[in-house]
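Thread: Newbie trying to understand structure tokens

Hi all, I'm a second-year student working on a class project, and my supervisor (Dr. K.) asked me to get a predicted structure for one chain before our next meeting. I've only ever worked with sequences, so writing a 3D structure as a token string is new to me. If someone could post the tokens and maybe explain what I'm looking at, I'd be very grateful. Here's the chain:
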Amino acid sequence: MKILSAEFVCSAVQPSQCPQESLPEVAFIGRSNVGKSSLINALLRQKGLARTSATPGRTQQINFFRINHRFLFVDLPGYGYAKVPQALKQSWRSLIESYLRGRKQLAHCVLIVDSRIGPTELDLEQAAWFQRNLLPFFIVSTKSDKLSKVELQKSIIHTQSLCPDHSIVAFSATRNTGREQVWALLYPHISMTTLS
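---
Reply by user tm_fold:
Sure, no problem. This is what the structure looks like when written as tokens:
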């Protein structure tokens, strides 16, 4: 994928604040600090478009990025161990589910897991939620550079055993591996507006 332009559009804390345009959207979701923003930046070859942080819970809104003026990437708040009040966590969850259930522009979802530990219980709950709501998704296993080849292979096999019906891509933002595989999986869902 040749990235000609990538720009931040807006942040939303309620569905009514989402962009009012018809471009297809790809949503990225995963645990806090799993590497969602780093994945987005690596896919777009941008260093700071999506804000990254070592502090879990940095992304607290739905952030929209317009790519090539033809589709949008959507960075969703992370779930899991962010040190925020329970009420705020619940409000994030409600916002995420409202977006995922009601957004007609949503073309595909990317579930992000940490390759070092594999899918957690929360990740598996999210995958099951996608399936119940008939939302298509594939899995990106981030931070793969932290593992040896043998360890990474075991991690992917383990993830595949838990999610047998979904594609899994080993990804490293540091080494820029897995980028083309992710784009290859996204092409069919954004191809009507991105490929010439």
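A couple of things are worth pointing out once you decode it. The longest strand covers residues 106-114. The mean pLDDT is 88. Feel free to ask follow-ups in this thread.
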